[in-house]
Write a structure and sequence with these properties.
The structure is a single chain. The protein contains ten helices and ten strands. The chain is of the alpha/beta class and about 260 residues long. α3 (about 105-115) crosses α4.
């Protein structure tokens, strides 16, 4: 589902023009990247031209996109002041006006996608762990079967195992269902490892966009503007600069260690 912004202005951004490619895992990196994410979610008032799947977004037709783009916030915000998980699901479905024939089947299906047991429906939200809360947020988002999923710092506060679980969900959505996933993170290591396409912001302007690996390796703007690259990229570039050894552009440290071993050998 392609999203196109043309000469868009908001309280933060000026004259933004860019296209988010369909069916990719897209990263946003840089200051106010979370605000750009909310702009894409249509949560901010803007001036300019926005196309969603070749349909121009207007005030009068916002309802067409309401459930096609869903933002999973960095921190869970209880919209309804219900502490029971099941009651919250019901209220969320009504709030977003999601057309559902069998509510219980829809809810259990969403839980299954994220790997949560049905017994969580009997629990209070206040008793959920941080990883359960994040998976609960994903399950809520899946109720409307969105075409575009926006994630604000989805890995923050998660341990390695739960981060891998979230990554598996994201990859499955993209591979099997061709969903467009847009991730904002201020951690370049996550973006390098988990995204295919990247937008880099500097002083509220998009200064770079393209394939993630190419962006991090091939552009001097990171050094020029003192923007941090992923650790593995910094190391590979340092080896090339200091030792004149060109290592492959790996994303896995274990693979990189093997490359170093063979070069030393």
């Amino acid at each position: 589902m392609e999203i196109k912004f043309s000469h868009v202005n908001s309280t933060i951004f000026t004259d933004l023009s860019f296209v988010i490619p369909k069916g990719e895992i897209v990263g946003i990196y840089g200051e106010n990247g979370d605000q750009l994410l909310k702009l894409i979610a249509f949560n901010k008032e803007v001036k300019g031209i926005i196309y969603f799947n070749k349909i121009r977004k207007l005030r009068r037709n916002y309802y067409l996109f309401r459930n096609d783009i869903v933002l999973i916030e960095r921190n869970f915000v209880n919209l309804f002041n219900f502490d029971n998980v099941y009651e919250y699901f019901i209220s969320y479905i009504r709030y977003r006006k999601i057309n559902v024939k069998n509510i219980d089947k829809k809810v259990t299906g969403a839980l299954k996608i994220v790997g949560l047991n049905e017994n969580i429906l009997e629990r209070k939200i206040s008793t959920l762990t941080s990883s359960e809360i994040k998976l609960f947020q994903f399950a809520l988002a899946f109720l409307s079967n969105p075409k575009v999923l926006l994630l604000d710092e989805p890995f923050r506060g998660l341990d390695l195992n739960n981060r891998k679980k979230i990554v598996r969900i994201i990859n499955r959505l993209q591979d099997k269902f061709s969903k467009t996933i847009i991730i904002y993170s201020n951690n370049p290591n996550y973006l390098y490892q988990y995204t295919n396409y990247l937008f880099v912001l500097y002083k509220n302007k998009i200064i770079l966009n393209g394939k993630t690996r190419d962006i991090f390796f091939d552009h001097d703007e990171f050094s020029l503007y003192k923007i941090k690259r992923p650790d593995i990229v910094e190391f590979i570039l340092l080896v090339k600069d200091k030792k004149n050894i060109k290592l492959p552009r790996r994303s896995d440290v274990k693979d990189l260690i093997k490359d170093i071993y063979w070069n030393v050998k």
